[in-house]
Amino acid sequence: MENQDKIICSELFQKQRKVEVVLYPAVLAWKEIEKSSKRSSGTSESEHGQTVKVCEIVAVHKTEDEADAQPRSHPKRINQPSQQYPHAFTVSYVRRTRQHLWRCADVTFHCADQQICEQWVQVINEQLSLLTNRPKNLLVYINPYGGKRRGERIYEQKVAPVFRQAGIFTDVIVTERANHARDHLKMEANLDDYDGVVCVGGDGMFSEILHGLVTRIQTDHGVDQNQPDAELVPCSLRIGIIPAGSTDCICFATQGTNDPVTSALHIVVGDSQPMDVCSVHHNGVFLKYSVSLLGYGFYGDVLTDSERNRWLGPARYDLSGFKTFLSHNYYGGTVSFLPADDNVGHPRDKLQCRSGCRICQHKHSSKDEHDEASEEKEKPAEDSDRGWNVIHGKFIAINSASMSCACPRSPKGLSPSAHLADGTTDLILVRKCSRLDFFRHLLRHTNNDDQFDHWFVEVHRVRKFRFEPWHPDLAPLEDASEHPESPDLSPISSLQETYDDRTAESSWNCDGEILHHTAIQVSVQCQLIRLFARGIEEQQDAEVAV
Ligand SMILES: Nc1ncnc2c1ncn2[C@@H]1O[C@H](COP(=O)(O)OP(=O)(O)OP(=O)(O)O)[C@@H](O)[C@H]1O
Ligand SMILES: CCCCCCCCCCCCC/C=C/[C@@H](O)[C@H](CO)NC(=O)CCCCC
Ligand SMILES: [Ca+2]
């Protein structure tokens, strides 16, 4: 960096070492300039300095406390140069540790002159105030009953201190009932007062915030959500997720971890990650929005069963997952879908969505043009089925993953190459197969093998899809698509005795909530919302340059 780029440069003292500290417009850098005579290692002067991006500085403050201001020195070293530096300031910044975890680290610089110390604090604060994407006022909703019921404690102990340090003002609402947050956002909250909404809870709580916010914005703009083809108005407020739920899939899939402090820091630095939202309708009536999983069959049944065991907390999904696996139900139905354009890749192309994803960015820049073109294509009534594919069959699971759905149970997720903001969802059809085959498929969600590489699994990247369960009277006696060489070798046949695949219906799991209709129409709304996140960082990007 050239000399003229320097905003301020001083010789200061850090941990008994003399350092040259320089603030550039985007970077704070410091480097040792004099070997400390008392350093036991006796190593030569450090060639490399340290740098912190200004956009990743959380706060700077004058170090008032005497104990902090005086560099900790051994009593024998009382007359060291450190004594000449009684003033100090501390810079708190984002430090990346393992596995996408962020922590707040401090570095304290000491100086002889009070004015220089104050000037540094002022100049860094001026640079921080230029970062206009940082939130100043947040509306926080805490679900005290999500996950292991630790929402309030997590917020008070781990998140509020970070917000305070960054000078963020908050209005906090601890919810008193289900849908409290949704209704407050829909009807009461004065959204103009805030730069964002923070959700402390799990995927279900996030769903409340999503519905409250999206519905409010549509109402304010006179958009009718019941029209499946209505052009929805994107939300200007970003949503932050402090994970305190059972699956925390949305947090995990957008940050690479479900850690409250990491989430708080992504909010403080003002990250922005656009995200697709699926709208779900039944016969032209709006039902729900979904951002992660829409699952019929296996995941619908897991959820239905798990709701009876809510008291078990996160373990309810393991128990219900096991029971549902044993019951090995399958369901007849017709799936129709409108495939996505080729330029958004394919669910099996192994191009994972990462921070700054090119596919999502390309989609954003071509969004308007694309939407106009596709509407043209869909307008004529007689052509409304043009481009649609139709599949009839018996399915163990029908899953639509608008994002990878990575979570601690399955770190690569249901569809590892799904994109957060490409305007598509990955439609995964798992046909009737043996229990052993289905087990192999499930197991592949937890290792590196390709879960789509089975004869009974197919996956399509789509913009819209519909599902119709088979009407009992119309259901074909045999499904021609079944694999002839794969008999169910299961010993657990007694569980099937009362099961009639001609009448059986499952339910849809919509981001962890049961839908009350089985015949649905789903349409992906490209980048309808934004989160305080940046997508999962590539590992090499994750290290601070030193
Ligand atoms: N005060 C409250 N009392 C009861 N239920 C609430 C309250 N506040 C929110 N809820 C509801 O609790 C449900 C579950 O919450 P949440 O998503 O936070 O946790 P979870 O179900 O354990 O996690 P996950 O959704 O990740 O599986 C949500 O559907 C939400 O509507
Ligand atoms: C032999 C071992 C096999 C293990 C297989 C594990 C496969 C796990 C895939 C997990 C996919 C989670 C998708 C996320 C869905 C969330 O919107 C929803 C709400 O939180 N969670 C569930 O429905 C909870 C779903 C829980 C499923 C178990
Ligand atoms: Ca998507």
What is the fold's blueprint, element by element?
Blueprint: E1 8-14, E2 17-23, E3 27-34, E4 50-53, E5 57-62, H1 66-69, E6 87-96, E7 102-111, H2 114-129, E8 137-142, H3 151-165, E9 169-174, H4 180-188, E10 196-201, H5 203-220, E11 238-243, H6 249-255, H7 260-268, E12 273-282, E13 285-290, E14 293-297, H8 298-307, H9 315-327, E15 331-339, H10 358-378, E16 389-401, E17 425-431, H11 435-443, E18 457-469, E19 508-510, E20 513-514, E21 520-531
Parallel strand pairs: 8-9, 8-10, 10-11
Antiparallel strand pairs: 1-2, 2-3, 3-4, 5-6, 6-7, 12-13, 12-21, 14-16, 14-19, 15-16, 15-18, 16-17, 17-18, 18-21, 19-20
Helix pairs in contact: 3-7, 4-5, 8-9
Bound molecules: adenosine-5'-triphosphate (ATP), N-((E,2S,3R)-1,3-dihydroxyoctadec-4-EN-2-yl)hexanamide and calcium ion (CA).
Region (Disordered): 367-386
Organism: Poecilia formosa
GO molecular function: ceramide kinase activity
Number of strands: 21
Query: What Rg do the Cα atoms give?
Result: 27 Å
Uncertain ranges? 36-46, 69-79, 372-382, 483-497, 541-546
What is the subunit organization of this protein? Answer: single chain
Structural class: alpha+beta
**How many alpha or pi helices?**
11
Bound molecules: adenosine-5'-triphosphate, N-((E,2S,3R)-1,3-dihydroxyoctadec-4-EN-2-yl)hexanamide, calcium ion
Protein name: Ceramide kinase
Domain DAGKc: 133-284
Region (Disordered): 367-386
GO biological process, one term: ceramide metabolic process
